[in-house]
Amino acid sequence: MPIPMELQHASQDFERFLADARDLAGLATRNQTYTMVQGVLHTFRRRLGPADAIRFAGVLPPLLRAIFVTDWPIDEPPVPFTDRATMTREVQALRRDHNFAPDTAIRDVAEALRRHVYLDDFDRVLASLPAGAAAFWSVQPSAIPGAITDSAAAER
Predict the structure, then answer these.
(1) What is the rounded average pLDDT of the residues 27-33?
(2) Residue 80: in which H helix or E strand, if any?
(3) Rounded distance, CA 136 to CA 84, Å?
(4) Structural domains in the chain plus CATH codes
(5) Euclidean distance between the first and final Cα of the chain, in Å?
(6) How many CB atoms within 10 Å of residue 41?
(7) CA-based nearest residue to 126, from 109, 145, 110, 144
(8) pTM of this prediction?
(9) Furthest-apart CA pair in the chain: how many Å?
């Protein structure tokens, strides 16, 4: 069996994702963007149990999947979803002295992520997760140029 395309092109796809997230957040560097993305993914992960987190990770591109599960204290119980401002402060607390995540970090990463996942699969998994999960990743679908839908994937 050949190596799946998502793995063959994982680095290039990740760089495109980082560029989208950087531009949406108005950040200057890949490192700033990486910290913001890691903070958003880990903030979301803290609100899921292991089974839900693994299902969510399954719809992420490979390198984002790796970031999502890295340094996971799997024995910690999930914390509840709260308001966007509180969760944004949690994102901004990661490596505080080197974190430039804007107050729009969650929305910026959500919009970038939705450009790089299969939306039907992504939304199906979100609908199966605890209350608050879908709202965490919500953005206006019409504002997502280049999003991958099942119909677009079928044309490839």
Answers:
(1) 96
(2) none
(3) 8
(4) 5-71+81-155 (1.10.490.110)
(5) 19
(6) 22
(7) 110
(8) 0.87
(9) 46
